[in-house]
Amino acid sequence: MTVRHFTKLGTISTLDCINTIQPLVRPKETKENDENMTQTPEILEAFAKRYKFQISSELTLRQRYELLNVLYEFKDTFAFEITDMKMHQNYQAHLELKRPGTTVKSRQFPLEREDEAEIDKQILEMKAMGLIKKSGEKNLIAQFF
What we know:
about 140 residues; mainly alpha; extended
């Protein structure tokens, strides 16, 4: 069977399908006093420049630094590189296909050697970090996990 272009294979559930909510538990190393979490404007501006945040020019300087301080406090939620990605404790995504028995047949687009090497490097990094693992599914294309 060939899957045609724009054929929907699966869906992601929306928020109205949530069954339970877990309370947020901050790590022990997080300081309880938010007053101590403020950073200098130089650090905040360097942070904003590195992550290329687009912040409205209508904000006052004080509002801008308050926003940047919040973003800086939770900077671990922004993955700048693959090594910055973190795994959520006790959570594993499970995507259900609309038609699980459907075999997807597709020809691999030819890649340059440099691109192929980069893909292999990133796959090995993600595997080493535990972000991906090899699937036991026989019908998957060899390039995908």
